[in-house]
Amino acid sequence: MTIATTFPRNPTASPTPVDVRAERMVDPGFGRVFTDHMAIAHYNAADGWHDLAIAPRQPLTVDPACAVLHYAQEIFEGLKAYRTADGGTALFRPEANARRFMASARRLAMPELPEELFVESCRALVRSEIDWIPDCDGGALYLRPFMIASEAFLGVKPSSDYIYMVLASSVGAYFKGGPKAVTIWASENYTRAAPGGTGAAKCGGNYAASLAAQAEAITKGCDQVVFLDAVERRYIEELGGMNVFFVFDDGSIATPPLSDTILAGITRDSLIALARDRGIAVREERYSLDQWRADAASGRLTEAFACGTAAVVTPIGAVKATSGDFTIGSGGPGQTSTALRAALVALQTGSAPDPHGWLDKL
Ligand SMILES: *Cc1c(COP(=O)(O)O)cnc(C)c1O
Which residues carry this modification: N6-(pyridoxal phosphate)lysine (predicted)? Predict the structure, then answer.
């Protein structure tokens, strides 16, 4: 079996006209402006990964018995390509996404996509779609690698066939005019992930299971939901798609420790490193909802924020819960979250040094 490692480009016959593209990129928002091409590769046991390509983005034709449609055997990733201060383009830590994608594949009994193929698919797609990176503040090309089980079979077992694809989407700042603080709903009713489950894997099923809690958050007047641990229903774990940090009056910060119920965010990992670079003490420790409420009331807790690739750093201004609501600090963005966000964005866009070698320049 010869393993192909390049993604030959098969250009679309009907590219988006330049003026239409420019118009779509003025205010792209998040996740609704897609580029003309996608990366694609196929897998089966006999041929391994094959038929790699950068191909026109178009609807898929799948059998209605396709395994992913019934049993949700699916994993995904999310990462961004940024324009850098020197006029170039860079991906942020794509090999970290590649390794997490492999870990998610193992948990969902899917074939691992080799790290080189993952990174090369992202690089090839960014090169192909480079004109789709918006110039607006916070503009980036958001990449969505994902893998689906494509065997047409209703028996319950790992699929024999898989399709890997990468979509590219022009995105702007998640929040226009800088991040505003969000109000979050602490769900004491629903949980996201249980020990031994799939919480540490980036799979669509986790998101499907979080939607009722997210909908409940909206009915409570909140923007997002934060989940408690499934065993004691006491400790803060994470939001539906973002990790969480707490900032204390002694200048230290804390975040829940990684476990099989928490997704190992690359933004989380990067912020821990950037904070430590700045001499900030960072603890990875469990923190209960009751303690959070008490510390917010006493002033020991000064800020809290959520983090992830899409929105980078999002300040948490207030928490609502059946057991009682509370406000954090001033209720608006705090100094530490604002400074850490600025430091990360400066590094990602090449306007600050990159001591950890996180930028993958194209
Ligand atoms: C993707 C994701 C995150 C954030 O991960 P990043 O690598 O920082 O984007 C956090 N929690 C969940 C559940 C996620 O799916």
Answer: 202
Q: Which two tokens stand for residue 71?
A: 């049993």
Give ranges for CATH 3.30.470.10 in the chain: 18-171
CATH of domain 18-171: 3.30.470.10
The structure's pTM equals 0.97
Span from the CA of 185 to the centroid of ligand 1 (angstroms):
18
The ranges of the chain annotated as CATH 3.20.10.10 are: 182-348
Q: Is 267 in the pocket of ligand 1 (CB under 6 A)?
A: yes
Q: How many angstroms separate the alpha carbon of residue 266 from the centre of ligand 1?
A: 7
CA 275, CA 340: separation in Å to the nearest integer?
7
User: For 273-298, how does the pLDDT look when each residue is reduced to its tens digit (9 = 90+)?
Assistant: 999 999 999 999 999 999 999 999 99
**Strands annotated E in 241-339:** 243-248, 253-255, 282-284, 301-308, 312-320, 326-327
pLDDT digits (tens, 9 = 90+) for 88-133: 999 999 999 999 999 999 999 999 999 999 999 999 999 999 999 9
78 lines ligand 1 (CB under 6 A): yes
